[in-house]
Amino acid sequence: MTDWLYGEDGYYATYKNIGKSGDFYTAVSTSKFFGGTVAKHIISLVDEGFLQQNATICEIGAHHGYFLADVIEFIYTLRPELLSTLDFVVIERFDDLQEHQTNYFKESFGDVVSLTHYKSLSELKCENAFFIANEIFDAFPCELYFKGKTARMNEHEAEFDVDNDWVSEKAKKYHKDRGEIAIGYEEFAREMTDSCDKFEFMTFDYGEMQARPDFSIRVYAKHEVIPFFDENIKRKELFGKSDITYDVTFAHVKDAYEEAGVEFVELKAQMVALVDMGILDLLEILKEADRPLCYEEIKNDISMDKATFYRNISKFEDEGILNAFESNDKKRYFEVKLTPHAHFVCVKCNGVECIKNIDITLPTYEINNVIINGTCPSCLVTV
């Protein structure tokens, strides 16, 4: 896996696009508000005094650079003065990716934001930092283990005939008789603690706290996920040309950091986090309203910032729970999807109303929105 991903001609050695011919889609790739949520959290850490205003904001393995750029964009929106005091850093070992990230930041921010690169955490020395990573632990090299034996690769075929005491001890500790044993978590945790005196580290990865009872290692090729041990897989053709990953055992991550003297705070599922941020309150407000509402009309009644609001709203739009449209005032309005109806938008006051006594059905067509522009009764009186 080390050679597959990180070798001279490995998959990560050069820039890759996201999508059908490139890298996996992730939450970072599909929504800017993912970064907005992290930006809000960083600001809260500054307000609480955990982060200083001159703290280092460091993404590890930024690849395209989009994630950190989104974080910076929302920091500018929510607390613009921090852009001139925070230090933005990317840990990236490959020169091609560093060049792409630098160019992307130049296009996005010009000279307003300065980006510093390091090839490894061991090069970084700072007093106070917020570290962020997206799907990094599932990209660490791993050993393949099966009933007491570790695999070696012979002509791209796995032969389980190696005795490795370290791997066997880890397998026993995490109750595995088969699966992946990650290599490097312990060193990575020590490097992070050596690089900074006081920090918080947030990472997003696929996996579970306890080890899964089977192999999860898989290859991504042309928008298809192929199990590594699929009988029809063409490993030789895919080697170094496609992404490869596996599910993270978070107990291993937790142990590695606690051994390095770092407190493990929590492991939280995404939906739990959404509830904690007040998503149920948001839905209740929209359900009870007699007309579509925009963010400005809701913000005082919900416990989330604008970035988090839009990130959560987009999920419910995708699921068909909410309906949304842009009005004359360039604001997006939202409502719970119930029965199809039209909306009246006043060209004078930009007021939005639901019009439910007009038949908007059209045989063989699917109608998303019907917008009627005009002047409302209140504005007609004042004309």
Give your account of this protein's structure.
- It contains 14 helices and 19 strands.
- It is of the alpha/beta class.
- The chain has two domains: 2-267, Rossmann fold (3-Layer(aba) Sandwich), CATH 3.40.50.12710; 278-382, Arc Repressor Mutant, subunit A.
- The chain is globular, with a radius of gyration of 25 Å.
- The chain is 33% helix and 24% strand.
- The termini are far apart.
- The strands form six sheets. Strands 3-2-1-4-9 form a five-stranded parallel sheet. It has a four-stranded antiparallel sheet with strand order 7-6-5-8, with helices on one face. It has a three-stranded antiparallel sheet with strand order 12-11-13, with no helix packed on it.
- Helix 3 crosses helix 4 and helix 3 packs antiparallel against helix 13.
Strand proportion, as a percent range, falls in 15-25%
Mean pLDDT: 84
Indicate the radius of gyration in whole angstroms.
Answer: 25 Å
Strand-pairing-aware structural class: alpha/beta
Give a quick account of the main beta sheet: strands, pairing sense, barrel closure: 5 strands, parallel
User: How much helicity do the residues have?
Assistant: 25-40%
CATH class of the largest domain: Alpha Beta
Please tell me the CATH architecture of the largest domain by its name.
3-Layer(aba) Sandwich
- How many β-strand runs? 19
- Amino-to-carboxy terminus distance: 72 Å
If you consult CATH, what is the topology of the largest domain?
Rossmann fold
Identify the overall geometry: globular
Count of separate DSSP helical elements: 14
Runs with pLDDT <50, length 5+? 15-31
Number of domains: 2
**Strand neighbour order, sheet with most strands:** 3-2-1-4-9
